[in-house]
Amino acid sequence: MGKIITIGREFGSGGREVGKRLSDELGIAYYDNEIITEIAKRTELAEGYVQHVMENGPTALMPITIGRTFYMGADPVMEQNNAIYREQSLLVQELAENSDCVIVGRSADYILRDKKPLRLFIYADMESRMERCRKRAPEQEHFTDKELRRHIQDVDKRRSKYYQFFTGQTWGEKLNYDLCINTSGANIEDLVKVIAKLVK
């Protein structure tokens, strides 16, 4: 089995940077937003819509295991959501079959559980996350501290809801990961070098 690394992350914790740097350090593929683009192609749905569904979770609290035919004609929106989830699962499995890789988010730790990937979860304290968000924010974004804190919490809440709906597991629960990494005040470049040594 090759190197398959999945990364779950709190918003603003630097998880995406960890993933990209780790893939560069190991010389393996990196997948993140590319997954959304490919799912949009496969489902013939607008990329913005796919991203909205994957960021905001299902529109109804129905288990993913409910069959496709149940919604056919009755709830086309839920049917589209289920199509997105099915394609996500298939695509993540294909990517892991094709090459060594780092996959950020997309419930990849659960989807690839039979392949025994190295499952990372990246987190940080709120102050560090707010600071990181401000450094990477577009010029036109002007959140107050209160607004930014609420935004971070809202994104995490949506990720948690999506993950739980799709996997039946608790997002961020340490038992679901092999390594939980606190990036509060840390130099991510140095952290990645340590992680890369573990993987090698």
UniProtKB/TrEMBL annotation:
Its EC number is 2.7.4.25. This is Cytidylate kinase. Pfam families: Cytidylate_kin2. One of its GO terms (molecular function) is kinase activity. Keywords: Kinase, Transferase. The keyword Ligase does not apply. InterPro entries: P-loop_NTPase (IPR027417).
